[in-house]
Amino acid sequence: MKGRIFSGMRPTGALHIGHLSVIQNWVTLQEDYESYFSIVDLHALTTGYEDRLDFSSLRREIALDWLSVGIDPQKSAIFLQSAVKEHAELHLLFSMFTPLSWLERVPTYKDQIQQLSQQGKDLGTYGFLGYPLLMAADILVYKANVVPVGEDQIPHVELCREIARRFNHLYGTVFPEPKDLVGKVPLLPGVDGRKMSKSYHNAISLTASSEEIKTRVQQMVTDPARLRKDDPGHPEVCVVDKFHKIYTPEVAEVEEKCRAGKVGCVACKRHLAENLEKLISPFRERRAYWEEPGRVEKVLEEGAQRARVTTSETMKEVRCVMGL
Ligand code: TRP
């Protein structure tokens, strides 16, 4: 084992294949690291406190997505953040010595407040200011040394290191300084060429049936200059090609034939749909297993138990050095 990893995702609804590379990265890492993957419902509350989110169905959905892609509960602890109270406890203790200025200068903080205030949401709250501090507590309560995240989260992991340093300086060395591990996330557009998002109805869900895959691929926007099958195509302006680049090993040949006008868009889309089917069908099979009543609940309960073993040890040390 190379060490410990912690990562989390907010439960905000079913995932789509734009999220897939992040979870696949976790699937690889769980082989080499002691892994903790958390559905961070408390983080969802920092921005969605008035939404009355139905966490019981949201957490089930996201857990099923993780399990179907191949997170293995034998190898990784999968659990709900709010089920492991030490996250909240450490967050509170960290808040005692965290300067306000550190939180106010996190790059996304002011931006997001502004953006969401246009949607009528007031994020001038204590909880939202503390978002990255809660994240630091998530990571450090496991003494994780590696944190697989998206690029947008790098400043948060940087803050987490600063918190660890400050704690260690004030009370004695308890925490490692975790490194971020930014996986390659290929940028997949939605079928209409805009950002892939469930709310735009342009996403391919991780649970898509064969029919849905075919329909979505048919909807993909292709080179508008290509009217006839033997017109030369321009893969660089084609959504289908963006997907071939990731899911089709022989993409070079596909692009060459397109440019030469040797394969039409219909056949090219059929080829992609077949590859997406190969990608997604194992997810469907695993999902069918985990969907049986009680299975997800058991995974989350056992995951939380395993998590608590680690977090209660850390908290013992923290309480001791802080004199509590
Ligand atoms: N902030 C992360 C996101 O929005 C989610 C998250 C919460 C997280 N706690 C974490 C990620 C700890 C990594 C480690 O994507």
TrEMBL record:
Transmembrane segments: none annotated. InterPro entries: aa-tRNA-synth_I_CS, aa-tRNA-synth_Ic, Rossmann-like_a/b/a_fold, Trp-tRNA-ligase, Trp-tRNA_synthetase. Its EC number is 6.1.1.2. One of its GO terms (molecular function) is tryptophan-tRNA ligase activity. It is an enzyme of class 6 (ligase). SUPFAM superfamilies: Nucleotidylyl transferase. Keywords: Aminoacyl-tRNA synthetase, ATP-binding, Ligase, Nucleotide-binding, Protein biosynthesis. Belongs to the class-I aminoacyl-tRNA synthetase family. This is Tryptophan--tRNA ligase. It comes from Desulfosporosinus nitroreducens.
